[in-house]
Amino acid sequence: MRGDLTNKDDISKAVRGCEVIFHLAANSEVRIGSVSPEIHYQQNVEATFNLLEALRKAGNVKAFVFASSSTVYGEPSKIPTPEDYSPLKPISIYGASKLACEALVAAYAYTYGFKAVIYRLANIVGPRSRHGVIYDFIQKLKANPRELEILGDGTQTKSYLYISDCIEAMLLGLDKAEGRVEVFNVGSEDQISVMRIAEIVVEEMGLRNVEFKLTGGVDGGRGWKGDVKNMLLDVSKLKGLGWRPRYDSEEAVRLATRSMLRASETVKLARPYLSSAAERTAKPSV
Questions:
Q1: How many angstroms separate the CA atoms of 4 and 14, rounded?
Q2: pTM for the complete prediction?
Q3: Quick one: fold of 8-267?
């Protein structure tokens, strides 16, 4: 079924009979938090609380999987950053909302007796991405193939993981987790800069002589308020269970770019057929 995590009736119906719940829903647009912090509170913290309350009342859930974020670490002094790093000091409202959700998940798991597995994710990319730097670059270059605006100073350097690697990690962690509450980092073992991502997107789109225009950014070259400039997770805990990413950050970015471009071309080709089919089935207006 489809529903809304801010609608308690929807959630009650959705959790009925479930033994394992994967909670991946959130507003993951970090930039929104600096202008509308209530969005991250409502769609992340409040939505997670609603779901936890529903499963508490249902009483049938044995395991709860939560997609958290590398942003809970803020700007750690230790890179790569392990799961036991402290103190956790997020610099964005989004990161704070995910940390609040982690605390709720852990407390409910210990209080009501189900297993919780929390994944702190790096930048996860794939064909269905509809936000983030790769998607933004593609849309900007489609609008103007001669120029690309890059938020920040271009040196922001982070870990990117392809979606298939992420799914494998989450399924393995759920299967192998032994504690009441387990926390796992999920990411690639290397990093890539925003500037290099721009170059890859241009290459995959077959463009030449594109002028890169850096905005300069805020707070020392960040793309926006709350943008973490340097992120790399220590994934040795999951590797110890037998998981290893198949793709490094550059390969993940290139694969995601190709798959997004293919998906957009497929939609473009299908549009005339979909339009004519809609016309054939449309009811006359009154």
A1: 10
A2: 0.90
A3: Rossmann fold (3.40.50)
